[in-house]
Specification:
alpha/beta; 153 residues; 8 strands; Cytidine Deaminase, domain 2
Length: 153
Amino acid sequence: MAAETIVALAASDLAAVREAAEAAYPDECCGLLVGRRAPGRVTVTRVAASANLAAEPARRFEIDPRLWLALAHRPEPGGAEVVGLYHSHPDHPAEPSPRDLADAWGEGTVWLIVGVADGRAAATGCFVFREDGGARFEPARLAAPGEASGEDA
């Protein structure tokens, strides 16, 4: 098993994701995480909200492919790229569902999940998708930028 991955995310970006989860309730919110990768660490530099295009937005999410393509083809400062995604789980735990695992792809992709209970953001889970040795999610640790690395926020 790989060492735990640290995902650095500014408090303001985490707050924006949690607010989006509450605003979307009882549907799922979703969006992309943009940042940089380093061994054992992913630094998220911004979050990009997406409309949820799923046919059943209360049960699943679908990120707008136009947003994904725009971010994938637009140069970002410091070499930032799409490093993951976020979505909410209305009235369900902040951990990957079997459907999440079935839909996941991309070794090392960060999945940030906000559990929403009765319209209020509750727990937030952070995971990294792994394909080596079988598809699975590994828990990751959320940290403030610069925490445990000496990097400037």
